[in-house]
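COURSE: Structural Biology Practicum
ASSIGNMENT: Worksheet 4, Part C
STUDENT ID: 0417
INSTRUCTIONS: Below are two proteins. For each, the amino acid sequence is given first, followed by its structure token string. Answer the questions at the end about the second protein only.

PROTEIN I
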Amino acid sequence: MRGYMVFIILSCIFLYYVLHCILWRENISWLRVIEMKRSPVLSCSSKPAFESLLSFRGIYPFMCTNDLKMIATLHESEKLGLPYGVKKSVHHFYLALSKLQSCELFPESDKVPCKKCIVVGNGAVLKNKTLGKQIDSYDVIIRINDGPVRGHEEDVGTRTTFRIFYPESVFTNPADNDPNSVAILTVFKSHDLKWLWELLAGITPEVNHFWKKPALNLIYKPEKIRILDPIITRIAAFNMLHFPTTFPKKENEYHNITAEQIFLKNIIEKNFVINLTKD
């Protein structure tokens, strides 16, 4: 479980960077090269504080069926297995993606070019901080797994733009569904993709390949589900935390708390991000 959690957190952090990268760059040349059929995103003229980290080209957060092979080749994802690539899992990616209705970043009606983004964790540090209104003031609110909102609105806010999850961590109670939020599957194994495809196809998924029983129903509609490109996880792990290039069989070995704390401390000290919970 710890191994999954660190990847979810890393994915959130790097997704935060990618969002700013896409919004800020005025000349997104890679979009023309690979001819993605995606809605154009208005550019933000304000350069982010962490401009030096935005040197990654050809990155779009969500996978699309029509350019899966092209993107996999561009990122060399076909050379690596999950959770860093698509090797041996391309068929499962196609199956899952065939049931989704969109891979867009924002709806076409969204014309705000310069967005403020926030990642909201699930830790008890948020309790009694009454940051709810401040969190809701951000344009893009990224949440993790089944971190609760209902019943904690005063501390964590009410809105969710993106919620990153895996099969064992997704909400199953319809009362927790925000119809305006997008649920993003972070894939660790091919069975995660098979699980998503089976649920969307009305098939009861097998549960033997999960560390705990996965959700057996989805509260999100297909048009509100995305699949995170493994390149997001890979760059966060390799380039930011300098993790090993292979995923250990024991996930806990991959959870380098010291490296994570140093990284977070560094980006906060450089004002790349702001820690709202700091007293």
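PROTEIN II
(use this one for the questions)
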Amino acid sequence: MAPTVTILFSIGLYWTWAIKAQMATLPRPTLWAVPSPVVHQGADVTLRCQGHLGSDRFQLWKDGELREERNASWELAEFVLRKVDGKRDARNYSCRSGQGPWWSELSEPLVLVVMTDVFPKPMISHSSYYSIMLGDKVTIRCQLSQQAPSQDYTFALLGAESLEPLQLQSPARTWADFSLPSVRAEDSGSYSCIYYRKMAPHNGSHPSKSLELTVHGQLPKPTLLAQPGQVVVSGANLTLWCSRPKLPSLEEVTFSLSKAGTQEPLQHQSSAEPWARFFLPSVRPQDTGSYSCTYRDGRAPARGSELSEALELVVPGSLPKPSLSALPGLVVDPGTHVTLQCRKPPQSPFWRVNFTLLKMGSPQPSQSLSPSGTSADFHLLSVRAQDAGNYSCVYYGRMAPRQVSEPSEVLEIWVTGSLQGSSPRRSLCCPCLPWSTCLPFDSEPPREEILCKEASKDRSREPSDPMAEDPQGVTYAQLNLMTLKKRKTDPKEMPTESPLYATVSLD
């Protein structure tokens, strides 16, 4: 009998350890209340439990006892409390998630506060008697009225509209001080406070009167975006979107669009939404430049924001086109550092200009530089397959009105690489196929490789091909896609299939 008992006892220990070990690997879920953990008597509240990846079962616990269990998908379960009651529902809640036979630990507890008429409203005030400036320290005090019953309370500072608790205090006196050590523009808004019983049921007061806090100084900067992109052809229509952070203290603002080098804003827009749209019809090369936007409080125009980050708009024009070259070449291995040099032509009327590197298919410039000389070096560090593609560059004057060059001839960058596997094979990333398409070098050319050759042959017939227009200073070499190795070729043994050419720099 004793051996059997020992075996069963050992098995029990084993399963206990296994369960504990499995529980330790399941992350603790998160529980929150919608619309808020502070609600009025009779309201509906939804408790949401967010579990770990793969969770399919959830439990809701109330005051340490299991209340409900259900299956759910998307690692999220909702438990709805209908017409909450201050005595029945103002309790401590937690949840846990499960996967298969295993359960996680319980979430951090959530205190559901139900506001009733039993407790009188508290009073709220702040410490500043002068204008509140950015960076000031502000203390907000929440104090019980004399009619409040003598109990142990927790005080909560709330957003006046959302009733979302922002800070909690449990002092051993009849008031609580909430500190904002260095106020920001987004701290502007309406605040209120409540107090509620520390012990369940967590009945509480109704919110105090609202306290309006206004932080003077610059508002946070907006963001400026261009649609369809920062590089547009002459005559195209362009939309610039200026968006600001959502601040509870702002109802309507006036957005302004500016361009560097101009004294007055180009456009103004008043909006109650956190964004504004500026329309630029039929843009021209002289529209090239740096744009930014700001906004001001409609009720207090002296209260404005910082400038957005500058957006560089490029509209190619009629100045002589620059030249673009690649070092060490157009066909490189992954991890190679490639330098694309954009050089201004000698006949250009400008001395100091800005250079911008463009990549076909990208809505915004890849890089922009303002060198002191007549050329700019754009560095592609540790190139990868997605760096393959067609590149060109433009230049434009730094002084208004800005004139912009035509784009340079297109350079096609190829990136070779190694495919993963027990037998590594060489591959070639072909920019004439969809982006990041890499072709393996097998004993026989794959169909994609043939397609790539055909596409290259078609491109060679186009007049815009730089190799066809300007053969001077360019060396053509046959690129063997099977080996990528240099070899001598007898003219009598030239293949019947058209070879694929690549430009090789001799610098």
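ANSWER KEY EXCERPT:
Q1: DSSP finds three helices and 39 strands in the chain.
Q2: The helical segments are 2-25, 447-461, 466-469.
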